[in-house]
Amino acid sequence: xxxxxxxxxxxxxxxxxxxxxxxxxxxxxxxxxxxxxxxxxxxxxxxxxxxxxxxxxxxxxxxxxxxxxxxxxxxxxxxxxxxxxxxxxxxxxxxxxxxxxxxxxxxxxxxxxxxxxxxxxxxxxxxxxxxxxxxxxxxxxxxxxxxxxxxxxxxxxxxxxxxxxxxxxxxxxxxxxxxxxxxxxxxxxxxxxxxxxxxxxxxxxxxxxxxxxxxxxxxxxxxxxxxxxxxxxxxxxxxxxxxxxxxxxxxxxxxxxxxxxx
Length: 262
Hints:
Blueprint: E1 2-3, E2 10-14, E3 17-20, H1 21-41, H2 50-75, H3 78-83, H4 98-116, H5 120-127, H6 131-145, E4 159-160, H7 173-192, H8 201-217, H9 237-261
Parallel strand pairs: 1-4
Antiparallel strand pairs: 2-3
């Protein structure tokens, strides 16, 4: 059995100004994503230039922040919002949803695509291999904060998290998600998109793999306290939101290759 290192969530403090590790992981995700995006933008098939990568990243950042927050409120804690509407704006108290952030990013890409005369899937296929960088960084932030831990377990690497009320060993599900949603997803998508693929294929593969990885990890991740299990004493909100991603992703890949074969 292991014990969580209990990191100080504040990375840097300058007087009253506190910079949290979780915020820095977001920053790392955006900076590395921007750098890798500029590399991809040099390819002859890139839909954007290196200079446009900065503008696209700005739109994506807005989509992540606003979509992630609204998604968490809508999908995971709507009752608290009804009791305290101003809680929506207190983002420093925590609460971000990947699925909401994904919808926000999709909206941002559509909006920016209209400005520069590119289609949604041109930008989506370009950005998809960069997303796992931010996902992986965010999961490291979750681990540093000692939040979103897994269910109780007796595996040798089970970990006791300081904020868990029962102080029992649990799956370090944040690290599982870092490995799958961050490392594995990045490697596969970067390799797959290294040469031109049919339009929608890269986006479809991203949706399929992320949805499958998230669906699987939810079996060992502790469901949100305010929601619990949605059905059958095992279905979680994360699984419910990931299932349409898997279906949509498979449909996009199938459609992309069938259309390309004609």
